[in-house]
Write a structure and sequence with these properties.
Blueprint (H helix, E strand, L loop, with lengths): L1 E9 L20 H7 L3 E9 L5 E6 L10 H9 L5 H18 L15 E3 L7 H9 L4 E5 L4 H13 L4 E5 L6 H9 L9 E5 L6 H10 L2 E3 L19 E4 L6 H10 L3 E4 L6 H17 L42 H6 L3 E3 L5
Helix pairs in contact: 6-7
The protein binds magnesium ion.
């Protein structure tokens, strides 16, 4: 086996100003998130050649703030032949890419199109025009990061539902509290509440408190996955939806859990490189083909969060669909060809 890597940096959009109208679906950055999110992010593309001649590409995009090792350390470990769960996914995805390349097919070919939700990181960066544009280009659901400015967030969500007929997902990123989430929900009139499709990671996982909120509004499990003991859910899980990130999670076992517990799923990118986005979009397409009634709108339309690189320029600028890019596998053949690849010395297996 031979492995090459190509380091890259993703630069967040200058988030304080509203995204341009041609970029509906982009993320902004609120004052609070600046410290946290508005920094360059490092990752590595991987190019893996297996002994059978299969050559595939994937992404390795760590989130050190969630406990991942930085990309340099990931590569260092890889050179020693040690695979973190993150790298295991990179290998799994690269192999899928390699097989598709061998068969000369794009990974999205013949798969049903999967609609994505509009991602709103900063409510302040969205105005009437942008929301109207989002509806016009076909978005029907929005995911709003909440917990920073409840008044503004409530106003935007209320507008999304009332004026545009969107369904809305709220993501607290585990930063809420039981009381805070309950109070936030009380602000919405009863007729509006059914349009809140779910709340993602309201606060750190606690089966009793989650169950309580799950009775008011369906809950979705994202990063809190790590705190969940699935064996304990004898009757039913205290959430109704799981978020699956193919860049980070074993997909077949996640789907198995979803089926076993009667849940629904959303497949998302890891807010990563377009190669990672395309891999997630392909997994989403396959999930839709196999489980059309279990897959909700997905979260793969995330490339506008960053300044466009050569890869992102090949993805649609308007949502809600990710479509094929030139080439086989995940596509991007020309851009991949232009990357600087460095061979990683790996132990012989
Ligand atoms: Mg989330």
């Amino acid at each position: 086996m031979k492995i090459w890597y190509s380091l890259y940096t993703l630069k967040p959009q200058a988030g304080k100003s509203p995204p341009r109208r041609s970029q509906v679906g982009a993320l902004g950055t609120s004052a609070d998130q600046v410290k946290e999110d508005n920094r360059n992010r490092e990752g590595a593309l991987l190019r893996i050649l297996w002994a059978d001649g299969c050559l595939g590409y994937s992404d390795c995009f760590p989130w050190p703030e969630y406990g991942d090792r930085g990309v340099t350390e990931e590569l260092h470990q890889l050179a020693k032949g040690r695979l973190s769960p993150l790298l295991e996914q990179s290998f799994w995805l690269a192999r899928r890419d390699g097989v598709a390349r061998k068969e000369k097919r794009h990974l999205l070919r013949k798969l049903p199109r999967v609609k994505n939700s509009l991602l709103i990181l900063d409510v302040a960066s969205f105005n009437e025009d942008l929301l109207g544009d989002a509806k016009r280009v076909g978005f029907t659901s929005a995911k709003v990061k909440v917990g920073n400015d409840p008044d503004k967030e409530f106003a935007l969500i209320d507008r999304l539902i009332r004026m545009l007929g969107f369904t809305v997902r709220l993501d607290f990123n585990s930063k809420g509290t039981f009381d805070g989430v309950q109070k936030f929900l009380e602000r919405f009139q009863p007729a509006i509440k059914p349009f809140i499709e779910y709340i993602e990671d309201p606060f750190p996982f606690d089966p009793v408190d989650w169950r309580e909120i799950n009775r008011l509004v369906p809950l979705a499990l994202d990063w809190e996955w790590r705190s969940v003991n699935w064996e304990r859910f004898v009757v039913e899980a205290p959430f109704k939806v799981i978020i699956i990130k193919p860049a980070r999670q074993d997909v077949p076992s996640a789907i198995e859990l979803m089926n076993r517990h009667g849940l629904r799923m959303v497949i998302t990118s890891s807010l990563d490189h377009p190669v990672g986005i395309m891999h997630a979009a392909a997994v989403a397409g396959e999930a839709k083909k196999t489980f059309p009634n279990k897959l909700l709108d997905c979260g793969c339309f995330t490339h506008l969060a960053y300044q466009a690189n050569e890869f992102a320029k090949l993805l649609p600028r308007q949502g809600p669909y990710i479509s094929e890019t030139p080439g086989y596998g995940v596509g991007f053949d020309e851009a991949l060809g232009k990357c600087q690849w460095v061979e990683l010395a790996v132990p012989k297996s």
